[in-house]
From TrEMBL:
Phosphoenolpyruvate binds at residues 22-23. Its EC number is 2.5.1.7. Keywords: Cell cycle, Cell division, Cell shape, Cell wall biogenesis/degradation, Cytoplasm, Peptidoglycan synthesis, Transferase. This is UDP-N-acetylglucosamine 1-carboxyvinyltransferase. It is found in: Cytoplasm. Pathway: Cell wall biogenesis; peptidoglycan biosynthesis.
Length: 434
């Protein structure tokens, strides 16, 4: 198990480029199963979860050609459905959460799909009911093998239907849309997720010949077609990385420029960090963060304490609450962090408290952060990364702390962040992989 040894207290300076979006990649890669023609995808992040999904597709019989470091061509003209019966498939499917999104495309094109209960971060229960209820409304028949924790599904040609999703699930919406594009008739999805990643998927599918309207809204209408063809697609930069770099610059008092951010797709992310006191300038499509010795948390108009919470798009993504929390520890002022969507994502704050942060964990969903105005820096300690996003928040804390920190289990961070130690070292960080 690898670790990061971090010497904190260094100011960073320079340009940093965000990787391609992990959460978009997991959807887009599954969509290649919808056509026998080549699909070329660029800006693919070189991270563990994405690489595992590419490996799974290759083992299923998809031809994969790497054209450049971040560009692949996928041709799913000879998919081996028998592979779904193997132990290797079970192991691969359980390794990554995003693997559940192969179900919609396989059902739509081949009439059958199998899936072990997928894994991913240990951040509380994340149910799959939205996926399966939606696919059942299109005509799929599901069977759940309780002892083996294994799902199987069959369908004749899927048929379009109206559905009101019980939650605006991003992956659930993506799975249903991918099934609906080859279904007979019209599929109407109300309370659909409308994150930029879902929009990207829908635009790519339309270029492949799908007929999807309502893109960017919570009412998506899909008119089924007989078949899809190949296309080219470039993924967005990762908004979670961009937000992480903004918080990191504020915590370390650094001057950095985050390049090629696709700012219109960031939603409330810049606003949230500005409310925490982080100054920034938009320079074309770049975000410039000037060096700041101090930053102060905003309050509401009546002077009451700021509350930062997650929500479905266009609200703040839950993946950035841990970074917002860490950033608040060195601000001037107090903020309540409210994690509404997952039940265990605040359970890393004990490490921050050990580093000297002033945090009250009110319950599994809420934490009150009393900022120290950089008067008392955090101190380096040894800690363990519990999940991808908390791991990066702890890395940011370590970069700002006095002395040496060691972060264990950095394989969690590697699942979501491409060469994060190398990229940060290039702008002045001191991180050593041990």
């Amino acid at each position: 198990m690898a670790s990061f040894e971090v010497i904190g207290g260094n100011k960073l300076k320079g340009n940093i480029y965000p990787q391609g979006a992990k959460n978009e990649a997991l959807q887009i890669l599954c969509a290649v199963l919808l056509t026998a023609e080549p699909v070329t995808i660029s800006n693919v992040p070189d991270i563990r979860d994405v690489n595992k999904l590419i490996e799974l597709l290759r083992d299923m019989g998809v031809k994969v050609v790497q054209n450049a470091a971040d560009t692949y061509t996928f041709t799913a003209d000879d998919v081996n459905l028998d592979y779904l019966e193997t132990e290797q498939f079970v192991e691969q499917g359980r390794a990554i959460r995003g693997s559940v999104m192969i179900v919609g495309p396989l059902l739509a094109r081949f009439g059958q799909a199998k899936m072990p209960k997928p894994g991913g971060d240990k951040i509380g229960r994340r149910r799959l009911d939205t996926h399966f209820i939606g696919l059942e409304k299109l005509g799929a028949r599901f069977n759940y093998d309780t002892p083996d924790v294994f799902y199987s599904a069959t369908a004749d040609r899927l048929k379009g239907a109206y559905m009101l999703l019980d939650e605006a699930s991003v992956t659930g919406t993506a799975n249903i849309v991918m099934a609906g594009v080859l279904a007979e008739g019209i599929t109407t999805i109300y309370n659909a997720a409308c994150e930029p990643y879902v929009q990207q998927l829908c635009r790519m599918l339309n270029r492949m010949g799908a007929k999807i309207s309502g893109i960017g809204s919570n009412l998506i209408v899909v008119e089924g077609v007989e078949q899809l063809h190949g296309t080219e697609h470039r993924m967005l930069p990762d908004m979670i990385e961009i937000g992480s770099f903004i918080g990191m610059a504020g915590m370390t008092g650094s001057e950095i420029t985050i390049k090629n951010c696709q700012i219109p797709e960031l939603g409330l992310i810049p606003d949230t960090f500005q409310r925490l006191g982080i100054k920034m300038e938009f320079r074309g499509d770049d975000i410039f963060i000037p060096e700041q010795d101090r930053y102060e948390v905003d309050t509401y108009i009546d002077g009451s304490i700021l509350n930062i919470s997650d929500h479905t798009w266009p609200g703040l993504t839950p993946d950035l609450l841990s970074v917002a929390l860490v950033t608040a520890t060195q601000a001037k002022g107090t903020v309540l962090i409210h994690q509404k969507m997952f039940e265990s994502r605040l359970f890393f704050v004990d490490k921050l408290i050990d580093m000297g942060a002033q945090i009250i964990l009110c319950d599994p969903h809420r934490a009150t952060v009393i900022g120290m105005n950089k008067q008392i820096p955090l101190r380096g300690i040894r800690m363990t990364s519990p999940d991808i996003r908390a791991g990066v928040a702890l890395l940011i804390a370590a970069l700002s702390a006095e002395g040496k920190s060691v972060i264990d289990n950095v394989e969690q961070i590697d699942r979501g962040y491409q060469n994060i130690d190398g990229r940060l070292n290039a702008i002045g960080a001191q991180i050593r992989r041990i």
